[in-house]
Inverse folding.
């Protein structure tokens, strides 16, 4: 393979600067590096291999669902799917609508207006993202159920004896599930809307005001259309999390597709039926992705100048300012403050009971699994991102896009998709050993920590990949070309040049994956080894036994760990406007 050497090209006796003459123009350093390394098959094969592994669960689901000899479709279509699909549709629409309104309104207020507590609320509004939905559901059932302190106070004040004597909203309902999920998930819309509003041109907004538009009209006719791609992305994340949820909706008595998969698989011992429901869930995910792309449209908005003006906040004074503060405080109180107070009270009171019930082993197991998932995800993401940098093959770009699709799979769907190929592998090895050597091997991959780590890596690979790709884009392509002139191969350049520069991005990626893996419930619940508890399954199991007080310490630990990446993410977005230190 010829080396790419930065030497002047002959131009009739006159030397030109290096890197010139690419189709009659300038030849970039990155172009020279790609052209010298794109004929190496290693990085292409590597990227395709990782992408194929990440798509293995999808292939497993489709294979079993479409080839199963047990024709469950007539039974599912007449009994399970109508109820589960309708409940899922209502839950998704309700949660999406509420989070869109709350997230967009609060983002616009803290971005464009000055009112009491604005800077504080800008930070607090992201905090509910640190609490898993199932923990918030447990907290509000503890507060609002018939035996909880709120209804007890209502009966005491009103002199009521039975539930028939008064009306109280039922938290264990479709409406309760929408309220709980919206309280936790609205920060997805808030963060994407906030990032979009921060980047918008002040000149465009001021022109709208000079043309007679009010503040509300400017928001509705100018800012909102410009933010449409960001809002669509935020809503898509909310919908994905809603489809993935198992613990909250099951505890609140809502039969969604995820709950139906779990019940059909474990309680009815019908894996083919669960696989076919999972195929419907997979179709729902694809539909969401298509709708999100259509909602974004083909429009592109960008600044036409490199000069950015700081955002000129409009003051909201008097009672209107306090109303704006209250509007921003209410989501934080409902989605974060109330659950944390409930958890802290029970955790302090029942700390000894929680430790006796296995809090410490569950915490150690969570750290073990989450650490392994973070390490594997960062390693694979580094290889994928670097393959995209050094190879110009279109197959590598396709592999990069498809490798991260696991994040869109609900945990129950992903668990079944992992189990099917792993079980087939175990059965094949066992049959081979019995035929040739007269003894069986049993389960090698299924029901092991390896299966759990593989599933969680598949789900959260895109989190690490996005961070590492962003870090790699900040490394100048000229470093690649300089390394090649000094005789470095792409692999040695990665080890000696890029890896030291990527350590901060790799650390951030590992932290995000670590926290996500600690919070994940559906896939962990379905794929964990026997008698292996993480904090998520520990909290789930105790709450299912109506022992929420003993589960509070584990739930509080998950919340505290989740705060770190949430605050990091907010700091990145709030300071993302070039030329301005104010967000």
């Amino acid at each position: 393979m010829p080396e790419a050497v930065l030497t002047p090209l002959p131009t009739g006796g006159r030397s030109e600067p290096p890197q010139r003459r690419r189709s009659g123009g300038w030849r970039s350093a990155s172009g020279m590096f790609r052209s010298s390394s794109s004929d190496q098959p290693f990085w292409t094969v590597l990227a395709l291999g990782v992408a194929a592994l990440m798509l293995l669960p999808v292939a497993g689901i489709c294979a079993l669902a479409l080839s199963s000899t047990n024709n469950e479709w007539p039974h599912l279509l007449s009994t399970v799917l109508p109820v589960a699909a309708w409940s899922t549709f209502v839950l998704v629409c309700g949660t999406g609508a509420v989070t869109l309104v709350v997230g967009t309104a609060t983002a616009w207020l803290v971005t464009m207006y000055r009112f009491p507590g604005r800077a504080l609320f800008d930070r607090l509004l992201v905090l509910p993202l640190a609490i898993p939905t199932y923990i918030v559901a447990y907290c509000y059932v503890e507060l609002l159920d018939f035996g909880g302190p709120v209804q007890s106070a209502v009966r005491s004040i009103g002199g009521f004896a039975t539930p028939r004597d008064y009306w109280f909203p039922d938290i264990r309902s479709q409406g309760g599930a929408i309220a709980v999920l919206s309280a936790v998930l609205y920060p997805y819309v808030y963060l994407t809307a906030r990032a979009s509003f921060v980047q918008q041109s002040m000149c465009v907004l001021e022109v709208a005001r000079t043309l007679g538009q009010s503040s509300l009209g400017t928001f509705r006719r100018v800012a909102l259309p410009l933010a449409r791609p960001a809002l669509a992305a935020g809503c898509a994340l909310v919908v994905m999390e809603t489809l993935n949820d198992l613990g909250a909706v099951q505890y609140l008595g809502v039969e969604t597709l995820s709950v139906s998969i779990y019940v059909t698989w474990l309680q009815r011992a019908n894996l083919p039926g669960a696989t076919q429901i999972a195929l419907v869930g997979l179709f729902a995910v694809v539909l969401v992705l298509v709708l999100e792309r259509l909602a974004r449209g083909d429009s592109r908005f960008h600044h036409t100048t490199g000069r950015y003006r700081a955002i000129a906040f409009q003051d909201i004074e008097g009672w209107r300012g306090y109303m704006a503060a209250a509007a921003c405080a209410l989501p934080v109180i409902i989605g974060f403050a109330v659950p944390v107070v409930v958890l802290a009270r029970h955790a302090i009171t029942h700390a000894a009971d929680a430790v006796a019930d296995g809090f410490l082993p569950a915490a150690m197991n969570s750290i073990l699994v989450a650490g392994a998932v973070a390490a594997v995800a960062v390693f694979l993401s580094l290889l994928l991102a670097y393959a995209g940098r050094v190879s110009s093959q279109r197959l590598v770009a396709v592999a990069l896009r498809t490798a991260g699709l696991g994040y869109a799979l609900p945990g129950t769907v992903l668990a079944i998709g992992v189990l099917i190929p792993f079980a087939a592998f175990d059965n094949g090895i066992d049959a081979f050993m019995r035929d040739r050597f007269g003894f069986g091997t049993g389960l090698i991959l299924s029901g092991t920590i390896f299966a759990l780590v593989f599933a969680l890596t598949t789900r959260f690979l895109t989190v690490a990949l996005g961070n590492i790709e962003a870090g790699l884009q900040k490394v100048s392509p000229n470093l690649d070309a300089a390394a090649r002139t000094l005789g470095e191969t792409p692999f040695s350049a990665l080890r000696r040049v890029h890896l030291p520069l990527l350590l901060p991005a790799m650390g951030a990626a590992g932290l995000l994956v670590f926290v996500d893996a600690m919070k994940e419930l559906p896939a962990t619940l379905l794929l964990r080894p026997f008698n292996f508890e993480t904090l998520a399954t520990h909290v789930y199991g105790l709450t299912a036994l109506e022992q929420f007080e003993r589960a509070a310490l584990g739930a509080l630990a998950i919340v505290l760990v989740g705060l770190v990446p949430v605050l990091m993410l907010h700091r990145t977005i709030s300071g993302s406007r070039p030329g301005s230190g104010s967000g």
User: Anything to note?
Assistant: Residues 1-39, 302-307, 576-583 have pLDDT under 50 and may be disordered. The longest helix spans residues 73-112. The chain has two domains: 39-67+369-532, 98-254+319-345+533-575.
